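Quick look at the format.
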Amino acid sequence: EEKDYLLKELNHRVKNNLQIVSSILSMQSRKLIDKEAQEAVDEGRSRIRTMSLIHEKLYNNDKLSRVNMKEYIDELSEYLFSSYRPEHAVEQKIKADNVILDIDTAIPLGLILNELITNSLKYAFRNVDPGLLEIELVENSKDFTLTLSDNGPGLPIDYSSKKSMGMRLVKTLTDQLGGSLNIDRSSGTKYIINFQLVG
């Protein structure tokens, strides 16, 4: 019981510390004049919020090292939609029933989701009405598959030669999960990531 209490308290304090860092970045962002610099700081805040949300879920969960990914994706998506506010209506379809992940897997996967959802909200729905964002996380016999797709215009032909920091981060985190990343541009954009539990 003492170990569980200490672990719960640790998650609570990590969450609070991350929220403090996020608040400091928010104050810094408001003082910036350069729009590109402001956007970079805001994206950093979003990544910190993504990690904070994991610890918040752990703190409120009886299973202190396991994360219900359906609940997490719902809350992360809601936060990102309220932050980026797409111009047109965007329907969300999220399917991640009964997928429970440990913290070492949930954090990199959460950061991957943050980058991919943010990318869709920023670029995919500018001239698409209504928009559609679909997220599916399924457990296979030996691994997991995350699929995220939108009905936007798709990535540019030369996207691979102009990888943003966000896409480099997605690739690095996918490697960390021992996974593979495939991108289908045939209709909108679809990211397919196969990965395993960390450790």
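Next, a different chain entirely:
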Amino acid sequence: SKVTPEVKAKTAEKIKKEADTEAQIKLIASEKIIADTKAKADNEIKGELKVHFIDVGQADSILIQQNGQNMLIDAGNNEDDKLVVEYLKKQGVQKIDILIGTHLDEDHIGGLDTVIKTFNIGEIYMPKTIKPTATFKDVVTAITNKQMKVSVPKVGEAFKLGNSECTILAPNETDYADANNYSIVTKLK
């Protein structure tokens, strides 16, 4: 039997269609692999550690986030309370898993009372000392009103934040002449 030009053309067209179909299948498979890889990468990015230094002037306020957990270290001065709360809300914070008041000066714990009143709070860490100021009393009242307790960290104690581990490095003594030396120091790994 003789192959006519018409049969050759139809065969070539059929081979081209099959090749196009195979190319489309490969493209779809490649796109699926890329999409799956991106989805996996997106899931891994959820473990990304974010550190926000909240602009409270000369005061201190740091938000650390990982895997949907939040740690707030200090909350600025008394007049920074609304700024800190609004910043936290803009970051999607609904719960503060770990709240640390590093020491009792107003430029560190000034906004803590409003933060405690506004958000669900997990654990609160503060140094084992008191300060006879209205700011300190406001923080204690906010904690008491939520029927919470303060944890006094011990050097070497560790706790988790997402995939990270925080270890308490200070304070190392029980009695200091300078109140700043009572500051809680943590190492985040």
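The helical segments are 5-45, 81-90, 106-109, 112-118, 134-145.

See the schema section for token definitions.
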